[in-house]
């Protein structure tokens, strides 16, 4: 069964520059993940991991890996999981304002 059929996909390279593992869930706004993860946050704006619902990806310290992201659907409003990234995604453009 295909995941997120018909959705635009983007691949980003992520490096965990932190000293601890970071785990990211399937529906988390990827641009707002832990600041220890280094990647193109503008490319990730308004997107989440293209993985099955309820699963996650673990990023080990010092390890680089590619992930595929798809656009968040629905109302495209992100709750205040990290307040500097919260709100209506399409009203803010593609640049996070932390």
Topology record:
Layout: E1 10-16, E2 22-25, E3 37-38, H1 41-44, E4 47-49, E5 56-59, E6 64-71, E7 77-78, E8 87-88
Antiparallel strand pairs: 1-3, 1-6, 2-5, 4-6, 7-8
Pfam family, one: Urease_beta
Catalytic activity: urea + 2 H2O + H(+) = hydrogencarbonate + 2 NH4(+)
Organism: Pseudonocardia hierapolitana
Would you give the CATH topology?
Answer: Urease, subunit B
| Helix share bin | under 10%
Order of helices and strands: EEEHEEEEE
Mean pLDDT: 88
Describe this structure in words.
The model has no long low-confidence stretch (mean pLDDT 88). A hairpin with an 8-residue loop joins strand 7 and strand 8 (87-88). The protein has a single domain, classed as Urease, beta subunit (Urease, subunit B). The protein has one helix at residues 41-44, and strands spanning 10-16, 22-25, 37-38, 47-49, 56-59, 64-71, 77-78, 87-88. With 98 residues, the protein is mainly β. Helix content is 4%, strand content 33%. The longest helix has 4 residues, at 41-44. The chain contains one helix and eight strands, in the order E-E-E-H-E-E-E-E-E. It has a four-stranded antiparallel beta sheet. It has a two-stranded antiparallel ribbon with strand order 2-5. Keywords: Hydrolase. GO terms for molecular function: urease activity. One of its GO terms (biological process) is urea catabolic process. This is Urease subunit beta. It catalyses: urea + 2 H2O + H(+) = hydrogencarbonate + 2 NH4(+).
